[in-house]
Amino acid sequence: MNEKPVIAITMGDPAGIGPEIIAKALAAGETRAAARCLVYGDARVLEIGSQLLRYLTVSGFFVTVALVYNGALQGTGDTKSPFYISLVSQIVVPLSFCGVMDALHGLRASDIWTAIVIGHVLRCTLGVLRFRQGKWRQIRVDLEAPPAGA
């Protein structure tokens, strides 16, 4: 008889990263193939962690592209544009979206995650558009050697 071992896993702090890590591990086929997993904790917390991972999967691509383009702008000396892009996309728009959702039906976790994804998509889009304008090509950055002995 070739029975799989039973592995007991505790979620830890429900507000921590434990639920997301467990959800990711259980989603991997290798984990289920190797052992029977018994998770101790609130099933609702694990479900919320699984939902969050679905949102983060979408936003990960946009965060990566936004970091590349906004970082490129900063590297050329254009620091104001990435600042304003971040301000609008990471604070103004997500908080406004959450305010509207709260007024409509009360704020839910999915509303907060949607606001985060919207912010990441917007930051990516604005960063790419600003970079493609090409105004960074006219910026001159003066790099002076530090004074001797400094």
Q: Could you give a short description of this structure?
A:
The protein is mostly helical and about 150 residues long. About 65% of the residues lie in helices and about 5% in strands.
Protein model, in words:
- Strands 1-2 form a two-stranded parallel ribbon.
- It is elongated, with a radius of gyration of 22 Å.
- The model has no long low-confidence stretch (mean pLDDT 89).
- It has helices at residues 18-27, 29-34, 43-75, 80-105, 109-133; strands at residues 6-10, 36-40.
- The longest helix has 33 residues, at 43-75.
- Helix content is 67%, strand content 7%.
- Helix 1 (18-27) packs across helix 3, helix 3 runs parallel beside helix 5 (109-133) and helix 4 packs antiparallel against helix 5.
